Amino acid sequence: MAERKEPPGAPCDTPGRGETCTEVYGARTRTVSFPTFRDVVRQVLHVLLPCPCLACGSPVSEPPRSPGLCSRCLEQLVCPPDRAIPCAFSYRPPLDLVIQAMKFRRLDYLAEPLADLAAPSIRNLVSSAGGIDSVVPVPLHWRRRFHRGYDQAALLASALARRLERPVSNVLRRVRATPAQSLHDRSQRRRNLAGAFLVRTRAQALVRGRKILLVDDVITTGATMEEAARELRRSGALAVQPFAIAWTPDEEEGDENPEEVDNRCV
Questions:
Q1: What is the DSSP letter of 135?
Q2: Distance CA 179, CA 189 (A)
Q3: 237/223 Cα distance (integer angstroms)
Q4: Exposed (0-12), middle (13-18) or buried (19+): which is 13, by Cβ within 10 Å?
Q5: For position 32, what pLDDT does the model report?
């Protein structure tokens, strides 16, 4: 959104598309925002072709800002219990459908509204940690990123970095493709992930002495996050604070009905 500055006391001319017009009346100012052409087109398309909720199919209000869920399904999001690695939500319906759509259905735009949902949690976390210097995503291996077309953790890290007003640094590289971890226990996952990450040679200065927020989309045992954090510390990071959008419930929690859990967070 561009901003047009007028001299004090000057009337506001008609702004261009998407510009902000500021009127000055003595010590008082009034700012009027005008929608861009893209905003208008989106609203028209939403009226003609309503966006369905990813969970129940009901029309979604404000689809550019919504994480693909209607207001009723948003109320079903569940906050997880305290974990060693902080996260914003439990990986339960309907949030699991949103993250799966972002990862496997090429709905990469969902990273922005997911970051909006996680913003209160991440701001509280960063404040309690005494601030951070940069945001680092847990990277995919290049072959998986090539097949998917993008790295969802990198998209989420960039979105969160903008909300925290901190730089995002893609300093980690996944040097070894690891097998799917979902069928392995914690000890086997750790063995599979040993040495899977390296800090890029030219990025050492961006890690040394820095306080880093390490971001991933979903974690289960936390083994991947732990290995990535270990490599950052080995390269001289002052502190590494991990964070994920969602944590997969433990097996003993898996049979719980989200509607019976009283820690909903939206």
A1: E
A2: 9
A3: 19
A4: exposed
A5: 55
Residue type, 97: L
User: Sign of dihedral through CA atoms 46, 50, 56, 61?
Assistant: positive
pLDDT at residue 188, rounded to an integer: 73
109 φ/ψ angles, rounded to the nearest 5 degrees? -65, -15
Mean pLDDT in order along the chain per 10 residues (266 residues)? 47 47 49 68 66 88 77 91 89 95 92 94 94 96 92 97 96 84 66 87 94 95 92 97 90 39 46
CATH 3.40.50 domain extents, the chain: 77-253
Q: How far is CA 264 from CA 30, 59, 75, 135, 221, in A?
A: 38, 22, 7, 27, 22
| Closest to 81 (Cα-Cα) out of 248, 257, 259 | 248
Write the DSSP symbol of residue 212.
E
Q: Does an H or E element contain 191, and which?
A: helix 186-193
Rounded CA gap, 28 and 112, in Å? 34
Residues 137, 144 contacting (CB under 8 angstroms): no
End-to-end CA distance of the chain: 29
Fold of 77-253: Rossmann fold (3.40.50)
Number of neighbouring beta carbons within 10 Å of residue 199: 21
- Token pair in block for residue 79: 């906050």
